[in-house]
Amino acid sequence: MLLIAIGSSLPVSGLDSQQIVTRALRAIERFAHIVAVSSLYESPAWPDPSDPAFVNAAAQIETDLSPEALLAALHAVEAGFGRVRSRKNGPRTLDLDLLAYNEERFDGANGGLVLPHPRIAERAFVLVPLAEIAPDWIEPNSGKTVKALLAGLETSEIRLIS
């Protein structure tokens, strides 16, 4: 199962975050088939809730691209929406995270790809939309399903928007 998380907290070119997420999904369709996509959710910025709120979603995709090529394609989509990597975990126009690529595991050696995403189990803003499309997916590092991981997290500030 190939899973991605999508988030936006800053406008770009007259588009708001909801529009950015929707258009990013269309851009992803150029190199991947979207199997399922969650609703859109609004969540406070993390780790600084005084930053603009995020619009988040999750998608399951299929592609022939390798994990590295897929990540590069996702980064190219981010760049197309004006993504600037200036501050870690800061506000951004678009954030596309490769959460899982089947059963592949990468340890990030030499600054490379880390799979599955290393902090997925701690992030309700990722797990809430993911639970909508893949509730029984087992996160390999914890051995728990998305539903089980979500049960241990606070979700009251995450709001369904569409």
Characteristic terms for this protein:
26% helix; six-stranded antiparallel sheet; 4 helices; 162 residues; globular; alpha+beta; 10 strands
Show the helix and strand layout.
Layout: E1 2-8, H1 17-28, E2 33-37, E3 41-43, E4 54-62, H2 67-80, E5 95-101, E6 106-107, E7 114-115, H3 124-133, E8 138-139, E9 144-145, H4 146-151, E10 159-160
Antiparallel strand pairs: 1-4, 1-5, 2-4, 3-4, 3-10, 6-7, 8-9
Structure description:
The chain is an alpha+beta fold and 162 residues long. The chain is 26% helix and 25% strand. The chain contains four helices and ten strands, in the order E-H-E-E-E-H-E-E-E-H-E-E-H-E. It has helices at 17-28, 67-80, 124-133, 146-151; strands at residues 2-8, 33-37, 41-43, 54-62, 95-101, 106-107, 114-115, 138-139, 144-145, 159-160. Strand 6 (106-107) and strand 7 form a beta hairpin. The model has no long low-confidence stretch (mean pLDDT 93).
